[in-house]
Amino acid sequence: MATETVYIIQAYARGRGEGLKAEPQVGCKDAAEARRKAERLATTFTDKGRQGVVAFSVSADTEMGDYDENPTVLFRAGRLPETFDV
Fold first, then answer.
1. How far apart are CA 61 and CA 14, in angstroms?
2. Global pTM?
């Protein structure tokens, strides 16, 4: 089992009612890149569009598809699901 750290950016757009809709995740090569890209996305929020963005890392065995359930948040901005409450 080869465990590695995966760096991910997840943005959220306005969904139905007050809900949030996840946009496609973006993988990054390291924490610095994930934080930098998430900070850039945070400047694109609109009332009817993107509502929030989070960059996080997680330990994973990508071959088996097993991911740690406790992500380490690197950057967060805007409205996010409760999963990312710090």
1. 31
2. 0.86
Return the structure tokens found at 41.
């996305």
Q: Residues 7-48: pLDDT tens digits?
A: 999 999 998 888 899 999 999 999 999 999 999 999 999 888
Token pair belonging to 71: 């992500």
DSSP 38: H
38 half-sphere exposure, CB direction, 13 A CA radius: 28
Contacts of 2 by beta carbon, 8 Å cutoff, 6+ apart: 61, 62, 63
More confident of the two residues 69 and 27: 27
Number of Cβ within 10 Å of residue 36's Cβ equals: 15
Do residues 42 and 77 make contact, with C-beta atoms less than 8 angstroms apart?
yes
Segment (H or E) for 34: helix 31-41
Q: Which amino acid is at 82?
A: E
- Least Cα distance to 10 among 28, 29, 25, 31 occurs for 25
